[in-house]
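Lecture 7, part 2: worked example. A protein chain together with iron/sulfur cluster.
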Amino acid sequence: MLETVLKRDRDLGTPARESKNLVTLTVDGREISVPEGSSVMRAAAEAGVNIPKLCATDSLEPFGSCRLCLVQIDGRRGYPASCTTPAEEGMVVHTETPKLHDLRRGVMELYISDHPLDCLTCPANGDCELQDMAGVVGLRNVRYGYEGANHLQDTKDESNPYFTYDPSKCIVCNRCVRACEEIQGTFALTISGKGFASRVSPGQNESFLDSECVSCGACVQACPTSTLQEKTVIMLGQAEHSVITTCAYCGVGCGFKAEMKGNQVVRMVPWKDGKANEGHSCVKGRFAWGYATHKDRITKPMIRKAITDPWREVSWDEAIAYAASEFKRIQAKYGRSSVGGITSSRCTNEETYLVQKLVRGAFGNNNVDTCARVCHSPTGYGLGQAYGTSAGTQTFKSIEKTDVVLVIGANPTDAHPVFGSRMKRRLRQGAKLIVIDPRTIDLVDKSPHIRAEHHLKLRPGTNVAVLTAMAHVIVTEELQDSTYIAERCDMRSFNDWLEFVRKPENSPEATESTTGVSAATVRSAARLYATGKSNGTAADVAAHRPNGAIYYGLGVTEHAQGATSVMAIANLAMITGNIGREGVGVNPLRGQNNVQGSCDMGSFPHELPGYRHVSDSTVRADFEAEWGVTLDPEPGLRLPNMFDAAVAGSFRGLYCEGEDVVQSDPDTQHVAAALMAMECIVVQDIFLNETAQYAHVFLPGSSFLEKDGTFTNAERRLSRVTQVMPPQGGYADWQVTVKLANALGMPMHYSHASEIMDEIARLTPTFRGVSFKKIERLGSVQWPCNDDTPEGGLETMHIGEFVRGKGRFLITKYVPSDEKVTRKYPLLFTTGRILSQYNVGAQTRRTENNAWHPEDRLEIHPVDAEDRGINDGDWVGIESRAGSTVLRALITERMQPGVVYTTFHFPESGANVITTDSSDWATNCPEYKVTAVQVLPVTQPSEWQRTYSRFRRVQEELLERARDSEALTGAK
Ligand code: SF4
Ligand code: SF4
Ligand code: SF4
Ligand code: FES
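Predicted complex, written out as structure tokens:
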């Protein structure tokens, strides 16, 4: 287990500098060489000399305000601050002299004379840098009393649900302000007032909750005192040990130190050595973990014959035996293919691997699918076709070398916040930004000191037309990288594609009436991506080719042409030579924490782990030998096909681990009808989610805090998920799958999750070098990780050659979606995420994050609202050909006329009642992002919402009856 003794990470005072030139200096007689630009403080720390400090920390640029870090330098007058003084060749530095001791004690006296001396009752007692420094400088008395003006009675701001601001303890070191600016990029804090009156202020003297603050916690992390303090620490006291683990939310995959008291989490501290996040976090990972111990957790297995029956709590053995007997009965009656399984991108790699192993080995078919079907399956197909493998090509850090960032169909500041902050930092340093999105996302207009050079506010569903028009501009204006293409790409596919893309019908002028983006804007954006200038020419790229990186999300994949858009992105990157080195690349931003991993682990019906087709007899033979079974060579049913088959009567049983298909899949009423038609649904989850209401067996799942395993983030990075508390239901999820497989007659024997990864590594060439031990030693590894790669795996893919050999260009003909606006449905409906909630909301809705987003709203442009007599906050009915629902309106110019938008974090919102069965041609990924709707003012919930509320109430009563009978049994 990655357990560490609880202590603060070593802080070297100022950030590391990169330079080929080293300077050598002497600090207290020790010689040290550091990169040019390093501070004297950092050089000293690297030589093992810790200079006292308060306003400096190595995650922030030095500020030089506290004057505690003074040093003496031979040949220099005065006592310079070591944090702001650059190390120079030949410098001789003294950090401990009687004069320096006096000066530092004087500084500390001044701080302490305006600081409450309540250390024993202070929540930061034992974890306070002010306290530490008082000790380090040898403070023994304070000559100035409290009689003069002070801040000791200043009022606390407790508005943020997770942390407090106690100004009486503030030493005005500015670390919080700098953290908010430099790390998070929100600029929510300022120091208001001057001199003695200066104080930290969120916004214009607002409370933290009312300000622009997004509750990332960077300021809390940076604060050296208890001024900004987690409420859990105030309540529970200091932790006594910590464990390294990985966030259970988005695909950034931030590393955290879970600081613990016994089995209780005291706080989650972003891990400084976590390569995905480097010590930063967002509100979800840092604070929204309370759901793990929420009272709604179901911790006892339950069964029932019909979904109209009350639940009955039973032993694990009875629940597992019942589930297995039902699956066997159904297969005996309806055939081998009548059952299947679904895994989730919220599951670990090991859990996902076991579910597909159970389906293929114990059910004897390939009816296994994952929620990646409904998000990034087009990425798998598109990148697989173009480059030979389905994965992001870069590390997140790679963006530090990017000159032009192209964001399409993604909203990183809300959906991938820690990477969003990294991207904003690079943009503040001068990288150029192109955003292609139907909606004005925060990167366009709400990020201080950032300006999108071009926002292509296209009509939903026209990504392919825009991307192909950009390629048209690049090749017709001779901006392509012909050398790269000739060396690295398949020329036959290039020539076919070139002929296609040059056609006038693909020009920005020909497509602007379709896309809604002016030809001039498309031309400028294409030139910017290819040359680094909006008016760049072939001469510019001949002189210098900039690094262009593309980041995309579900706004690309969840379309009827999702896979085509991915291919168009792949084409763009290849023609500009932007694949195969740092700073460039094609980067799918994965929605959930383990989307990459769930795809890697073979959870699609046609692929075994490592993206190998089930029809390949050599591959099958490896798995058959290891698993001791015979595998079906025919691909199984995809998720939507399972639902269709259920409605048609041929698919009757489902094992669903960690996924809530009723809320997250399109056309909710069709999904519900499919589930109602089945005879045995086994749901394994931590809450009685929407899908569980249709279940016959409920197996308690475990949260990320209760199990061991690995997650793979959007960089292909495998990080450890580490158990910090026992599973509430008694078993980790992988253990439950093992029990079920054994009951079904397929023996599985693992004593620890690491053994499952060992098996994955044995069977999967790209994972051959992966093991828990290696991940723990290195912090994380990136696949491919085997004998052909460096020890920690490959950071950048396709260097020198593509995985498939030569990069393949693919024809990307724009085909309009069948989902068209009509007189009956004149608006286009699209969906997205918000920072404070996550996916179906099952976790974040059970936290204080509701303070920021208590309901889903329908965003509508003022013109469309006015046409319909809709005021801000009015209830509006949204109707599509699939169904209707009711939300409150939010009138905003972020939308374009003709397009409405909502988030989908609350089940009662019914966003997927609206979405239809239309899907991507290649992968069946639903076309969530384009639905033709009408929106009108209404006064009551929709028919679906009324039915949903009644059904939910009944199901809650059936659950209550199980709990009541348990209470009665327990009382006897
Ligand atoms: S929590 Fe984050 S966003 Fe809020 S003030 Fe602190 S650093 Fe800024
Ligand atoms: S709140 Fe903390 S970090 Fe911010 S200025 Fe005050 S003491 Fe420094
Ligand atoms: S939700 Fe994503 S960005 Fe936020 S802490 Fe977790 S992994 Fe990091
Ligand atoms: S640490 Fe250098 S001036 Fe504060």
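The two ends are 41 Å apart (CA to CA). Residues 163 and 229 are 5 Å apart (CA to CA). Keep this in mind for problem set question 3.
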